[in-house]
Amino acid sequence: MARNKHPEETVQKILDVSMALFLEKGYEHTTIQDIVDALCMSKGAVYHHFKSKEDIYDRISDTY
Predict the structure, then answer these.
(1) d(CA 24, CA 22)
(2) Which of 15, 18, 20, 36 is the most buried (most CB within 10 A)?
(3) Are 12 and 1 in contact (CB under 8 A)?
(4) What does the angle CA 44 – CA 45 – CA 47 come to, to the nearest 5 degrees?
């Protein structure tokens, strides 16, 4: 299996897509599957970087 040479880019992509979905659908109505589908990534790839949707939200909140 190939490794991502730039994990920070993947993390930023997850955060950007998640924030867009949270703004569009609201946090409560956005699922991890919604994020995965929008990213065209595997669920495992998202969970490799974040343990939960709440973890993603917390990172976004810390950043902005």
Answers:
(1) 6
(2) 18
(3) no
(4) 60
pTM: 0.89
Map the chain to HEC letters: CCCCCCHHHHHHHHHHHHHHHHHHHCCCCCCHHHHHHHHCCCHHHHHHHCCCHHHHHHHHHHHC
Residue type, 27: Y
Read off the pLDDT of residues 19-56 as tens digits, 9 standing for 90 and up.
999 999 999 999 999 999 999 999 999 999 999 999 99
Whose CA is closest to 21, among 43, 38, 8? 38
CA gyration radius, the chain: 11
- In single-letter form, the type of residue at position 51 comes to K
State the residue for tokens 């991890």: 32
